[in-house]
Amino acid sequence: MRLTVIGTGYLGATHAACMAELGHEVLGVDVEPDKIAALRAGRVPFYEPGLEELLAKHVASGRLRFTTSYQEAAEFGEVHFSCVGTPQRQDGPGADLRYVDAVIDSLAPYLTRPALLVGKSTVPVGTAARLAERLAALAPVGAEARLAWNPEFLREGFAVEDTLRPDRLVFGIGEAAPESEADLRAVYAPLLEAGTPLVVTDFPTAELVKTSANAFLATKISFINAMAEVCEASGADVALLSKALSFDTRIGGRFLNAGVGFGGGCLPKDIRAFLARADELGAGQALGFLREVDSINLRRRDRVVDLARELCEGTLSGRRIAVWGAAFKPDSDDIRDSPALDIADRLQRLGAEVCVYDPKAMDNARKRFPALDFATGALAAAQDADLVLHLTEWKEFRALDPAAVREAVAHARIIDGRNALDDGAWRAAGWTYRALGRP
Ligand SMILES: NC(=O)c1ccc[n+]([C@@H]2O[C@H](COP(=O)([O-])OP(=O)(O)OC[C@H]3O[C@@H](n4cnc5c(N)ncnc54)[C@H](O)[C@@H]3O)[C@@H](O)[C@H]2O)c1
Ligand SMILES: O=c1ccn([C@@H]2O[C@H](COP(=O)(O)OP(=O)(O)O[C@H]3O[C@H](CO)[C@@H](O)[C@H](O)[C@H]3O)[C@@H](O)[C@H]2O)c(=O)[nH]1
């Protein structure tokens, strides 16, 4: 089939390359000419394992092309995927839908023959119904310009794997256009033939599956981080608590790692947007717990700052602090709402001299926080440090030799904000090792 993928960021670039891998002819569309130039050259303008290889393969095969022209997109595509951002609004907790609206406004006037627009962005419930009307009103073909909603569940760092082997597919089909289901079944035929579970539903359910999935994941992380707070107050060990919980198959061990909490371009803004939308619908009381999920999450960052001050004899002023990690999670260069950089920035504002190192997110971090210092490696960042903070659990940090790092620092003190280092090895090498929720 001939598909377009509109918005070629973390989600869209992955979706475009994976749709080409499934055998479709794909045209990626973005408003940023630099991004399109990079993608045309087979270069992914961000870090996502395995994506560049897949992109280059299909740019070379001719099955994957890129453009900035909506007219070209409309002329080319039978099915158009909308993958633009839905960040938190500047002026409040709700989702900023201006990019989602702009896709309709830019594409619709060129739709002179029947077409299907499929929303993949994460949106507040009720958005799809509104967009379907807007699309039909603006398109020359009227109601033959149909909308469907197909939320995306991929994780950064595993984006290609998650797109080619998803846990499930969800199709939100508009009442007025039941034939959209057949189009989506055709797009995803290889995945459905491989046995991927499919849920076909209406617009509001499809939108809510996505926001409730992220709310559940955020809740699970904040649950274990709340237990970490209680562990800190009682002398218990959250790592062992989490391990013991995980053997109960009803609970499971995934998303039960206590630490500095969740960040990124999804969970934090999605729970806030969910709350804001529920308030608008008069259902805010049902989601009140999500406010607490958000607060527990942010309190973990405060806890690291307090612990850092405590380890630096009560003052951060003039202390040299190494921060290992800038990305919001390993295997990504994404720094959106990164706990590591938020903590680094706060420590610096409190007078510390902070030096950051991350294997992949340095360029993004430098652009966003130009006042921070950056080093070329983990050891260089730790040079003469009074304290080391391990805030993003890259494999590279776990492989470090604690004895070698000890040679570099001024004081052998480390806070493991991800409970991911071998605490025994660090202590044996003479370090004061502290972790969140552990004695
Ligand atoms: N990143 C993820 O892991 C992930 C996973 C599932 C769902 N989502 C959701 O997908 C959406 C996109 O997220 P992202 O992380 O890829 O964002 P992103 O910021 O990385 O990408 C958005 C892209 O859209 C482009 N764009 C903006 N306005 C445009 C327009 N009018 N026309 C064409 N392109 C335009 C931007 O230039 C950018 O390249 C969000 O709703 C997000 O919540 C993201
Ligand atoms: O036990 C855990 C698991 C994760 N995290 C943190 O939680 C955040 C989010 O991690 P993850 O969910 O793996 O990353 P994302 O790529 O943001 O993916 C989430 O957000 C996407 C966008 O909506 C969804 O598609 C995915 O299903 C959902 O997992 C990161 O900061 C992690 O460090 C923890 O603190 N403890």
TrEMBL record:
UniProt KW 4Fe-4S keyword: no
Q: Which reaction does it catalyse?
A: UDP-alpha-D-glucose + 2 NAD(+) + H2O = UDP-alpha-D-glucuronate + 2 NADH + 3 H(+)
Give the signal sequence positions. Answer: none
Question: What is its pathway?
Answer: Nucleotide-sugar biosynthesis; UDP-alpha-D-glucuronate biosynthesis; UDP-alpha-D-glucuronate from UDP-alpha-D-glucose: step 1/1
Domain UDP-glucose/GDP-mannose dehydrogenase C-terminal residues, every copy: 322-423
Pfam families the record matches:
UDPG_MGDP_dh (PF00984), UDPG_MGDP_dh_C (PF03720), UDPG_MGDP_dh_N (PF03721)
Q: Which NCBIfam families match?
A: NDP-sugDHase
What is the protein name for this chain?
UDP-glucose 6-dehydrogenase
